[in-house]
Every structure is written in C-alpha cells, then in structure tokens.
Amino acid sequence: MNDDNTSSAQEGGDVAAAPPPSKKIKSDEVDQAPDSEWPEAWLMPNDECVDQKAPNKLEPNVPVTVEELKALGICYWKLDATAYTYPALAVPWDPKDSVDPVLSKIRDDRGYSYADIITVHPDTLPEYETKVKSFFEEHIHDAEEIRFILGGSGYFDVRNKKDEWVRIHVKAGDLMTLPEGIYHRFSVDDTDMIHAMRLFVGQPVWTPFNRPSADVHESRKKYIEEYLEEEKKVED
Ligand SMILES: CSCCC(=O)C(=O)O
Ligand SMILES: [Fe+2]
Ligand code: NI
Q1: Nearest ligand, CA 181
Q2: What is the topology classification, in CATH, of domain 35-231?
Q3: Residuewise pLDDT in 10s, the chain (236 residues)
Q4: Where are the domains of the chain?
Q5: 66 in Cβ contact with 74 (< 8 Å)
Q6: Looking at the whole model, is its pTM more than 0.90?
Q7: Can you cite an annotated GO cellular component (predicted)?
Q8: Where are the beta strands (DSSP E) in the chain?
Q9: Binding site for Ni(2+): residue ranges?
Q10: ipTM above 0.90, yes or no
C-alpha cells in the first residue's frame, strides 16, 4: 500500500495549489501492539503433525516475523486481561458489558456486536479431546475470526504465502484477528487450558469450510486476491 500522503513539490509560489482531496482520514482507531509485543510465531515441520499440543518447532527453530504475520492479514492488540474479571463461560456475553476501555474502543472501531466466552479445558468442555481434534481441522470462515485470550494459552496455526504452517502462541491479553478466507486451525498447548472471548460482527456464524473443498469458496478467492497475489499488483 502506498502510504505517501504528501503533496507534490510546490511549483510557482504565487498561486496556492488546491489541497489534494483527503483520501486518508486520520484514523483514531486503537493502535496495534508494537512488534516486540506480538506473540511468538514459528514455522512448523512440513510433515503431518503427530502431537498437535506440542510446540512443533523446526530444529533449529525458524521464527516468523511480525511483518510476515501482518502481510497475511493478521491484526494484533495487547490488552490487560488480568485487570478485569470475565466469567469462565458466557454464551453469549454482551460486548457492551466491557469495562475495559481498550476493549470497548476496539469493539466500537470494528463493529463487534456479538461476543461469547468459553473455557477449553477437560473439566469445562464436554467431549474435550474430540473438540480439540475438530478445532485442528484446517479450515476457513466467511468472516473474520476474532479471539481475545483471557487466560491460559494455545496455538493458532495459519498458512503463510508458501502454504507452510505458521504456529502462533497466544496467551492472556492477546487480541488477534484472522482475516476472512485464511486457512487456519487451532490447538490447545500442553497446558490443556485456554479461556477466550470470541467476537463477531453481527450474528455469529462459526461454520468452518474445510480444505480442500473451501479452495473454491468466495471468501478464499477474496483472500487470495487481497493477500497472496499482491506482488502482482502495480501501484504508482
Ligand atoms: C481459542 S477458543 C476455541 C477454539 C477457537 O476459537 C477456534 O477454533 O477458532
Ligand atoms: Fe476457528
Ligand atoms: Ni476458524
């Protein structure tokens, strides 16, 4: 994207040039976290994942940069989840009940009108191991996936531009969004505990479209166009 908002060099001096039409309205949205605060991310081995709850790092580890995560369409904010209390389970949870001003601002900036709160743990989620396996199926959604981690930790895996798995280790305070149409999956880590808020714009639709049938889904095509083919676009 071309972020250069400066006007061209002055020519005459006696005639004031009309200001360029203001295309960029200064955004007052909550800033995403500085790179140093993003969660740790790394490449996973290519072969089939035998233990989804293990870190599955390459030997030696290959870290994935924040720049690369951003280029895939991922957004990240760091909040203070420990300063506020959230129920272990609330389906739904009214996002208007937020008393965290940062969460409220992100909610309003991005139109998050629905939320719920779940705890993925053997004692709180019926058929725990079955659910853990089903979260780990590679899929897309036809909407953004928004997760605010309130406690515990887990892994969101996303496909990078080379179709390799990138593992992102999320923990309390992490608010991360995955764009519509990105191939991804979720796993608990070896602590078997994650407490998370799921947000949504409008009525929630959690339907996963699994690979490979999702390859022809409109949301996948849109994602490819927007994020995977950008080197083909020519901008002046
Ligand atoms: C992190 S909470 C439970 C899993 C989940 O959100 C998901 O699979 O998208
Ligand atoms: Fe998901
Ligand atoms: Ni998903």
Answers
A1: 3
A2: Jelly Rolls (2.60.120)
A3: 334 333 333 334 445 555 555 555 667 999 999 999 999 999 999 999 999 999 999 999 999 999 999 999 999 999 999 999 999 999 999 999 999 999 999 999 999 999 999 999 999 999 999 999 999 999 999 999 999 999 999 999 999 999 999 999 999 999 999 999 999 999 999 999 999 999 999 999 999 999 999 999 999 999 999 999 966 556 55
A4: 35-231
A5: no
A6: no
A7: cytoplasm
A8: 41-43, 75-78, 114-120, 139-140, 145-159, 165-171, 174-178, 184-188, 194-200, 209-210
A9: 139, 141, 145, 184
A10: yes
